[in-house]
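Hi everyone, sorry if this is the wrong subforum. Our group has a chain we'd like a structural model of before ordering constructs, and none of us has done structure prediction before. Sequence below.
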Amino acid sequence: MSDIKKVVLAYSGGLDTSIILKWLQTEYRCEVVTFTADLGQGEELEPARAKAELLGVRPENIFIEDLRDEFVRDFVFPMFRANTVYEGQYLLGTSIARPLIAKRLVEIAHETGADAVAHGATGKGNDQVRFELSAYALDPTIKVIAPWREWDLTSRTRLIEFAEQNQIPIARDKRGEAPFSVDANLLHTSSEGKVLEDPAEEAPAYVYQRTVDPEQAPDTPRIVTIGFERGDPVSVDGEALSPAALLTRLNELGGAHGVGRLDLVENRFVGMKSRGIYETPGGTVLLAAHRGIESITLDRGAMHLKDELMPRYAELIYNGFWFAPEREMLQAAIDASQDKVTGEVRVKLYKGSASVVGRTSPHSLYSEAHVTFEEDAGAYDQKDAAGFIKLNALRLKLLAARDRR
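Answer:
Right subforum, don't worry. Here is the predicted structure as C-alpha cells:
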C-alpha cells in the first residue's frame, strides 16, 4: 500500500473517524478526501466540514451529500418490494445503507483521482464485509484501508491518547465509555454493545430514541392510508410525497404509536451472534401495507414464490452482496411481480402494532362473487371440489394402502 497518495474516507465527523483521518495522514502520509453522507440520521452534518478542515483537509476535498431520496428510492424501496426480513424479523436498516455509501466512496475516488477508500468498520462486524464487497464489485482495482484491522489503538484509552497527542477535539461526553453504540438512517436506528451485550437483560428504556414506549402510546388508534404504484409507496393519506418525505412521515406516525421496536439476537456473517435493539417505525408500517396490497393483487403462485425467494434475497443484502449478480437476478424477478401492485391500504397504528384494516386496488384479484357465503349465482360450482379432492388424495391413498400391507 506504499503507493497510496490519496484516500477517500467515509467520515462522520465523530471521534473515531476523526482519529482515522489523522492516522491515515500520519501512517500513510497521504492526502485524505472525506465523504459524509446524509442518509437521514437526524444529525447536523456541517460540523463534519469544520472538523475535517481543522484536521487539515482541503475544502475541495470535503464531500457532504444529501442522499436521502436516492437511499429510499433506489435501495429501501426495491428491498421492500420483496417484503424483506432477515431471520424472520430484522428489516435490514444498516445493511441496506452500506452499498450506497460504498458506491459514492468509489465514485468520489474516481472523481478525485484517489488510490484507495477507507472505512471505520471494525474487524468483528458485518459492515467491513459490506463496504468492501460493494467497493470491489464496483471497481476490482480499488484498494481498501480498514484501520481497525491494522492499528494498535485497541482500547478507548489508547484512542483518547492518540486524539490528545494530535490535537483532535474530544467532546466532554466522549472521554468516558458510551453506554452503547448507535447507527441511524432514515430507515432505522440500531443500538448495540455495552449495556446491551447481555441478551438475558432487558434493554434500558433510554436506549429507544425513535419510538415511544407502546405502553405510553396514545389510547386512540391512528388510521393511515398508504397509496402504492407498481409496488412502491407514493402517498400518505392522499398526499403525494417524495421517497424520503414519505418514509419520514411514516416514521413520525409509527414512532408516535410505539411501532417498530425489535430486540434481536442475530447471526453475523463473520460467524458470531450479536444482540441489537432496532427501531424501524416507518418500515414496519410499510411492510404491513405492502403485504396488504399484494394480498389482493398478486396471484397465489407469484406470492408464494416471492416468499420462498425472500430469505435468500435478505441474506444476500445482510451479507453485503447487493451488487452481486444473484441479487440482481432476484431483484428482476421480484420487480416483475409488482406490475399490478397498485392501490391503497389502510393501516391501524395502536400501542406498538401496525395492522392492515382495508385494501383496494383497480387490479384486485379478490372476487366477492366467488367467496360469498350467500347465493353466488353460479360463479362457483361446489361439486367441482369433489374431483379436485379425489385427484389430490390419490397418492395419499396409495401410500396408505402400501403401508397397511
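For your construct planning: The chain has a mean pLDDT of 95. The two ends are 74 Å apart (CA to CA).
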